[in-house]
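Let's inspect a concrete specimen:
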Amino acid sequence: MSDSGGSVFWGAFWMLLISILLFWLPGIGGFIAGIVGGKVSGSVGNALVAALLPALGLGLLLFFFATALTGMIAIGLIAGLGGLMLGLVHIGGLLLGAIIGGLIA
């Protein structure tokens, strides 16, 4: 990471890692992860993109794995949309933290 800017990839990585480690703190864990990831991302725009990537990635992974395991695209689609919705439910505190972290970067 350089001083001139941040990285969306590393911001998303830290948001995902800290969210997993602080899962037992509902709301606050995501908020802390958002602040750290937003600071690593370097700006508010990068932080918002980094906050949305884990939710979209989870939905896509569930879609591919469910489709591969069942052999039916419809089951994969339902599982993928369910995972995406779970990710979006968690994203409230993460987005707020990402905005604050992006502002202090």
Summary: DSSP finds four helices and no strands in the chain. The chain has one domain: 8-104. The mean pLDDT is 85. The CA atoms of residues 14 and 37 lie 5 Å apart.
